[in-house]
């Protein structure tokens, strides 16, 4: 059977914004890379953007660039636009983007109430009104002391002060935006983006929540939009007809009452068009990012802003750009149906800068997926360069292309989890012959199991599986790897990627049959492994699921477990011991399916090492689902019907027909030790070396596979 290739005729069609023609409708939106020095663009930034331009994106939008640098900055590592000394770096970036076949847009910003550098330099932050304190900061409890320390270090112990903008301040601000646009033109840029969202100063003026003024810049929407319109007109007068003028606008503000509504956003967009805007870029704003980060500005849900963007589009005649987890198929449909004109793909282009080229070549299945883990976002909280869990070349573009080997070797990889599969893929691409062994009946290892609780992980599982097959790796499943069987294969080197070791709790009742580790739960869910100590109905359900093919598919298991709780090893009363990344995700998964879940965590923080924004959302979601959470808890004993534990010296008991142990995970690779003692060249990858989940598996795979 021939699989029909997906095509994207609307997404890949040429488009135009103001005077600028684009080769396609894919835009890289602004994402801060923190690679500049003293406001000047350096080679790291150029390499990053040039890679996305070479990958086919129709337009590249830089990260936040400060119109009054260093005033109004949130980082000393963001580009500056306030002096002519910044023009050479901008020109080098524009030249590189143009050489790669794309167009350059520079995002122009004054950060207002989040201008951290103003605080550090002793300046008050420029705001429309003195900001209200956030109503909910409860998510901060799940930041580790190390994370809080790194965030505090960026503040240097200083507290923000504020200055309500005077008319003189506003006139100065308008001039700064116009002069910044002139420097972008002088550097050879193609467009500028005026940022009127995300709690920055223009967005603050536009917001009913943030703007409490009583003069002509406050009150009605027309008054609140006045400053943005003045900036647009000034920029248009400076560069209009030569550069495209894009305005970034929140389609909605989330998290507090009196935030900007979609109707207000649409009316504001119409005013911006009348003031001279050539396009509207629809985003979202979290009025309290610590409580609502995954609504705005970086949503957790695919196509989260599409409804708001459609409202804005109906109000204007200029092009609309839509952002917010816009996957290619979503963008294709929206453009074809007239819901938007351009699609901004941020995190997806961090994961795979060659996305557009692959779509144009009819190779959409080869696009490396973003798994929405927020690892890239987290680094910005302490002013570091973003990382990508699935693309270690982010911020280190010179890692690619992979160097070809001069001497082809036979590499045996033991363990077909994410680290093992990625090692096999890269080693094969470099020219080695690879044999991949796994004792189970499927590829994926813990990635397969995590796909049950985290559907985005299944995207990576599918991609890795296809890439291993496409590379021609010799895959041998249901194969137990021993030192003897490996030596019989005569490898030149062995990579051990057998994952972590998961132990049972060292308490009374820890060995009862209803107490599961991740390994035993996986055996039951997949219908594999030794489950002889489990109740008969669970063994039968697992076997029937295997025969029907249900337990081969994470998606089918997720669906079946929602409809038939007893089909899989679940129970009405579940206690999850350990509230780290795995435990928290399992608690969510079970609670969503109707289980009454108690989560018992020995420490204070939940969801570690899950990246902070995703962690905050997961904790919030678990609580909303009714998960009973106990922090600083010590398990004392497990009985056939309960788990007994103490919190701050007080005894507690939770009903449990099923107990899942998500703690006690450690790195261990006895096979590697045995091979090394036998004189075999051996390397460790992933959790077998250090427990760091998907990010650790992929990054360590690159480190090993590129040096074999």
Sheet with the most strands: spatial strand order: 3-4-6-9-10-11-12-13
Unreliable stretches covering 5 or more consecutive residues: none
| DSSP helix fraction | 25-40%
Radius of gyration: 27 Å
- Sheet bearing the most strands, described? 8 strands, parallel, barrel
- Structural class, from secondary structure content? alpha/beta
Beta fraction: 15-25%
Form type: globular
- Mean pLDDT across every amino acid position: 92
Secondary structure: number of strands: 28
Distance between the termini: 37 Å
Query: Helical region count?
Result: 26
Task: Explain what this protein looks like in three dimensions.
The chain is globular. It is α/β, with parallel strands linked by helices. 36% of the residues lie in helices and 17% in strands. Helix 5 runs parallel beside helix 8 (226-239). The mean pLDDT is 92. The chain contains 26 helices and 28 strands. The strands form seven sheets. Strands 3-4-6-9-10-11-12-13 form an eight-stranded parallel beta barrel, surrounded by six helices. A five-stranded parallel beta sheet has the order 16-15-14-17-28, sandwiched between helices.
